[in-house]
Amino acid sequence: MAFWKQFVLSLIVIIAGFAAWVFFMPGAGDMMRDAGIPESLVSKIAPKAEETADAGAQGQRRSQGEGQGQNRRSGGGRNSAILVATEAVVQGVVNDRLNAIGTGDAIRSVAVTPQASGTIREILIKSGDRVKAGQVLAKLDSEEQVIARGQADVAVRAAVEKSNLYHNIQSSVSRMDVFDSEIAEQGARLQLQAAELNLARRNIVAPIDGIVGIVPVNIGDNVTTTTPIVTLDDRSEILVDFWVPERFANTVAVGQPVEAMSVAKPGQMFSGVIEAVDNRIDAASRTLRLRARIDNSSDELRAGMSFSVSMKFPGDKYPAVDPQSVQWDAQGSFVWQVTDDKSHKVRVSVVQRNPDFILVNGDLKDGDKIVTQGLQRVREGGAVRVSADVAANAEVATQ
Prior knowledge:
The protein has four domains: about 5-75, no CATH class; about 80-95 and about 315-399, conserved putative lor/sdh protein from methanococcus maripaludis s2 fold (Beta Barrel), CATH 2.40.420.20; about 95-140 and about 205-315, Efflux pump adaptor protein, beta barrel domain (Elongation Factor Tu (Ef-tu), domain 3), CATH 2.40.30.170; about 140-200, Helix Hairpins. A hairpin with a 2-residue loop joins strand 16 (about 325-330) and strand 17. It starts with a helix and ends with a helix. It has about 400 residues and is α+β, with helices and mostly antiparallel strands. It has helices at about 5-25, 30-35, 40-45, 45-75, 145-170, 175-200, 390-399; strands at about 80-90, 90-95, 95-110, 120-125, 130, 135-140, 205, 210, 220-225, 230-245, 255-260, 270-280, 285-295, 305-310, 315-320, 325-330, 330-340, 340-355, 360, 370-375, 385. The protein is built from seven helices and 21 strands. Strands 1, 2, 15, 16, 17, 18, 19, 20 and 21 form a nine-stranded mixed beta sheet that branches. A six-stranded antiparallel β-barrel has the order 3-10-13-12-11-14. Strands 7-6-4-9 form a four-stranded antiparallel beta sheet, with no helix packed on it.
């Protein structure tokens, strides 16, 4: 497009915008006079706009007058009171119950490993067996250890005979020879004890009472002191670790009762108590670790199960109101309270939202009447008329 065409088009747009501003903007004439435009030019440019503004002001005054007249005709008294529906404030409780997911573990669990290296010669248990502490679970080859014990036993007998002989002929030998024979006897006895210990360690024994898990080794396997032979679980009681929000940190304590339900046993509740409370809040999740102890004398539970844990608390009590009654303005949330047929604004803060009610913190008590319907026309200190039946409530809803 040519430059002169662009210039003309821009000039037309500017003139049209100025004309619209002059016509629709109230007080445009006064603003032009303040800007120094001569009165003769202003009277030619903006007479229509001033007439339109004057007409609008007159129409507004007429509307206000009609409204005031209508209000005067409607009269006062009970007929001028706004019809509303109310509900009484009730008491609600928050933080009265805790639900969490936890993982169970046996009260004692041991992965049994050998105390010496060697080849498994015999396995004396199978998965699911109940064993007692000290019971032999498996045996390693022990031929070398048997020979070493026999040699130590012979050395002890020789040392004892020599010591006895020196004691009998003390007159023919020096005291130092007698003392050396006694030391040799004690050393031989210690060697025998070491040989017996090495032989005993060829037996793999249970360190606790428990139930045998799956045995991962076979006869003939060569094992070391780090090879797991079997896992023993004492599941007479189950420990359940779970995490709770930090707001419960000052509420939970050792000994408090808990209820747990296993995913494997839906609908069946197991009772227990808090066994331990951690000493710090986890900074990443803002949770506190708890451990519950649950009786398992019936042996229905297993280590590693997941549990749904629940606890009950007295909780914090707050006024509960209908969700429709809570309103907001520039200063925050509030409700309308009806006292002596007058409406009054009460400031509240929302504590918890629920489907049927909202817990709030404010100057309210049980039984206070709170407006739930007809809120659009309620004003501070205004007269209200409380509906008394369902039909009246429907009338409020249609207003």
